[in-house]
C-alpha cells in the first residue's frame, strides 16, 4: 500500500468539499481565494541552557551568574479552517531557512501556502543556529565570502552565467536576486545532533505529523525519525547527505567531481525505525547518469545513486521507500528546489498523490 | 487634529462591518474567529551586492569572480480580506527579530495577529544582519555570552530573580523560556544606515504605510523617515536611542546608571521632515522619576526624558509628536514590551485610538 504509481500526467488533486473549498482553494480563473486560518503563531522549541559560574549583580552586570538559552529551533505555523489531521512540518537545507517554502523567488505561492490551501496545518522550521533561531550556545565566526555562482551551479539552475535549457526557473533578474537573498549563514557550528534533537522536540510537542525536508535536511529527517514516534511519513526533496545504514552494511563512499559522499552506520535496531513509515524521495532534472567534470551537477549523480542504495536497503528490511527521479515520470526542467520551481503546482500534486495513497491526508 | 486625548479607561475600538467582522474579529466569548487572509508571503528588500575580482571557474570554484547579495531586510506579510488602506510595518529592537510582534511569550496573540483582526495589512521586518536577514556583506564574530539576567532587568520585567510587583508578564517558567529564546544576535556589525536604507526600500516598494517600531528600532524609524515619503505615521514603543535634533539644538548628553544617552544632530532641512507626520511614543511602567543605582531601570529614565525633549523640539517646529507614559494614563505594570505584555489588547486599543484620531485607519 505504500508504493506509489505514477502517470506521465499527474492528475490535479481535488480538494474536498465545503467551506475550505470556497475559502482556501485556488480558483479556476487563477485568482487566489482567501485563506481561512483558524490559528497562527510562532514559538521556540528544544534547545538548552548554559549558565556561567558566579553570582549575577544587577547593579554591575557582568557575565557572572548569567544564563544563555540557545540551540532551539524557531517554528512558525498556520492551521487552516477545516484542517486535515496530520500537519506538514517543513525543514530547509544548507544555507537556507523557512524562506525555502514561502513565496518563490519569482513571487508565486510556495509550498507553505499551496498546502495550506490543501487544508494541511503547516509548520516551518528555522533550524538551531540558523535564521531566526540564531541564538546558539557556541561562539561563531562568519565570513562574508562571495559564493553565489557556485550555488547557482550546485542548485542546478544552470552553469553560470547560463541557465539550463528548459530550466523551471524564471529568467527575470529579480527572481535571481530574491533567490540569492534566501541564503543565510550558520550562526554557530552546524551540528546534526543539535538540529535533530530540536526537530524531535517539535514533533513531541505537536503530535503525529509528516516531515517534508530539503537537501541537507533530508539526513536530518532520518536522524529525527530515530528520536520521536510522531513522524508518520517523510517527503524528502533532493536529500544530499546523512543516509543511515545498518552497521556492517554501509556502502562504500561514492566519489564525484563535487566531492565524495559517505554514508553513516547505525545499530540495526535503530535503523529498523526507518522501515516503519512511508518515505518518498524526489530528485529534479540535470543530474548526469555518468561522471562529468562539472562539480555542481556531478555531486547529485552520487546523491541519487546513494538514495537508491538506501531505498533498497530500507525496503530489504520491510521498509516503504520510493525514489522518484522527476524526469523519469515525465517532469522536466527541475532544479534542486522543485517545490519553488515554475511547475511547483505540478510538483505539489505529486506530493498530494503520495500523501493520499498512503492515507496521510 | 494630530494630538490625542486620553481617558483613564480606553474604549474598545469597534471593528467595522461585514465579512471582516465575522471572519477576523475576536468573538465575545473569547474564542478567536478564523482569520481571512487575501494574500501572504515574504521577500527580501534593499541590500547590496559585493563582487570579488577575477573570473568564476565552474569546474574549480573559488571566491574569484563570485558575488554576495547581502544587507537586505527580510519581510513577511499578510493582507487580510477587506483590508484597511494603510499597512502596518513592524520593526523590532535590539537583539530581537520579527518574533517581537508574533505569539507572546505566554502563548497569546501578538500585535501581528491582533492588528490583522483589525483589518490592517501587516508587514514584519527582520532587519539587515539579523535573524532571517542574516546574510551580510561584512564578516562577523559572535560570542555566546550569557546575558539574560541583564536583559530581564533592562527590559524591566523585574530585578533578577524577582518580578516587579504587578508586572504584566506571566510567571509561568515557560513564558520566560520563550522570552529569552526570542533573542538572536547581530550577524555582522550593527549599522543604522544599512538598516534605514533597507527599511526605506521597503516603504518605497509597498507604498504609503505606518511604521511601528520598538526600542532601538525607534531611532531607525526617524532615520527611515528622512529617506522615504511613504511613512504616514509612526508608533514607537519605548524608543531607546537615535533621537534626531537640528544641528545647533542638540541637547546635552543625559547620564544614567545605565549609560549616557546622546542625541544626534542633523541639518534642519532634514529634521523638518519629522514634523510632517503624526508620531506617538509609548513608554511602560517601572521607570524611575529620579536617578537610581539600578542600571536596568535608570537607563529608561533618561530615554523618557530625551523623548520628551525631542517631542518639544519637533512640535516647536510644527510637528505632531505625543509621548505617553502609560502609568500616567492609568495603564500599569508594563515592561519594555507593552505590545506583548498581559494587557496587550488594551495597549493595542490605545494604538488603534491614535490611528483613528489621525485618520490613519
TrEMBL record, chains A, B:
Signal sequence extent: 1-25
Alphabetical UniProt keywords: Hydrolase, Signal
GO MF, any single term: hydrolase activity
Listed name of the protein: Alpha/beta fold hydrolase
PANTHER family: AB HYDROLASE-1 DOMAIN-CONTAINING PROTEIN (PTHR43194:SF4), HYDROLASE ALPHA/BETA FOLD FAMILY (PTHR43194)
Source taxonomy: Bacteria, Pseudomonadati, Acidobacteriota, Terriglobia, Terriglobales
CDD domains with a match to the protein in the record: Esterase_713_like-3 (cd12810)
Record domain AB hydrolase-1: where: 88-291
